[in-house]
C-alpha cells in the first residue's frame, strides 16, 4: 500500500475528515458516518465509522443508487442520540474536511446543534482550483485523476462513508502537493466562504 505523502502544510494542524450517508428522506437522517482524525501521517486503521438506525426508513432509491445500505443492515444499530456525544467529541475543535463539504456541514449542524467548527475545508472547491478544467469533479473521477490509494478500503465500496472519507483525505493530500500549497493558500482555496477572513478594504484617501 502506497500512501500519499503527508503535506508540510498540515503539520501541527488538527483535522477531522468526514463523510455522511443519509436515509434519503427530507429532512435527511444520518445512517452512516465515518471520521478520520488527522494529527499527522495516518493509515486507514485510524478510520472510525458508525452505522445508525434512523427514525424514518431508508428509501429504496438511495439504497439502490447511492450507498447500498438497507433497513435490515440498520435494524440492530444504535439510534443517533446514543452516538451523538461520542461523534461531537471527536469533531470538537478540529477543522472539518469533506468532499462537497456544504452537505456534511448542513447535515451535521442539524444533528449536532452545539457543534461549531473553527474551519471547514472542501476538497471539491480545492480540486476546481488545483485541477482546473476537468469534465467532472465527482469523487470517483478525482480518485482516477489523482491515482489515489483506495485499495485499503475497497471492501466498503464507493459511497460508503469509510471509503469516501479515506478518499477525501487522499485527495486533500494530493491537491496540496500538486498545488504546492501552504496553509494560508489552502484555506483560501478550500475554505467555505463564511469561514474565511473578510478581505482587506481597498486603499483610499482615508
TrEMBL record:
<dbReference type="InterPro" id="IPR012337">
    <property type="entry name" value="RNaseH-like_sf"/>
</dbReference>
<dbReference type="Pfam" id="PF00929">
    <property type="entry name" value="RNase_T"/>
</dbReference>
<keyword id="KW-0540">Nuclease</keyword>
<dbReference type="InterPro" id="IPR036397">
    <property type="entry name" value="RNaseH_sf"/>
</dbReference>
<feature type="domain" description="Exonuclease">
    <location>
        <begin position="14"/>
        <end position="181"/>
    </location>
</feature>
<dbReference type="InterPro" id="IPR013520">
    <property type="entry name" value="Ribonucl_H"/>
</dbReference>
<protein>
    <submittedName>
        <fullName>Exonuclease domain-containing protein</fullName>
    </submittedName>
</protein>
<keyword id="KW-0378">Hydrolase</keyword>
<keyword id="KW-0269">Exonuclease</keyword>
<dbReference type="GO" id="GO:0004527">
    <property type="term" value="F:exonuclease activity"/>
</dbReference>
Amino acid at each position: 500500500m502506497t500512501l500519499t505523502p503527508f503535506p508540510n502544510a498540515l503539520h501541527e494542524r488538527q483535522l477531522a475528515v468526514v463523510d455522511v450517508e443519509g436515509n434519503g428522506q427530507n429532512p435527511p437522517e444520518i445512517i452512516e458516518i465515518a471520521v478520520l482524525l488527522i494529527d499527522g501521517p495516518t493509515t486507514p486503521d485510524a478510520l472510525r465509522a458508525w452505522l445508525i438506525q434512523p427514525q424514518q426508513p431508508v428509501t429504496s432509491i438511495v439504497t439502490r443508487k447511492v450507498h447500498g445500505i438497507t433497513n435490515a443492515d440498520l435494524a440492530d444499530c444504535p439510534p443517533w442520540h446514543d452516538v451523538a456525544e461520542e461523534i461531537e467529541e471527536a469533531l470538537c475543535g478540529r477543522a472539518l474536511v469533506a468532499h462537497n463539504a456544504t452537505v456534511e456541514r448542513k447535515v451535521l449542524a442539524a444533528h449536532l446543534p452545539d457543534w461549531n467548527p473553527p474551519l471547514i475545508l472542501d476538497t471539491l472547491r480545492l480540486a476546481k482550483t488545483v485541477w482546473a478544467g476537468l469534465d467532472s469533479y465527482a469523487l470517483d473521477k478525482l480518485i482516477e485523476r489523482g491515482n489515489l490509494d483506495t485499495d485499503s478500503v475497497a471492501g466498503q465500496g464507493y459511497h460508503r462513508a469509510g471509503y469516501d472519507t479515506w478518499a477525501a483525505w487522499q485527495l486533500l493530500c494530493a491537491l496540496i502537493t500538486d498545488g504546492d500549497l501552504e496553509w494560508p493558500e489552502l484555506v483560501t482555496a478550500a475554505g467555505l466562504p463564511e469561514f474565511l477572513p473578510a478581505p482587506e478594504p481597498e486603499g483610499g484617501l482615508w
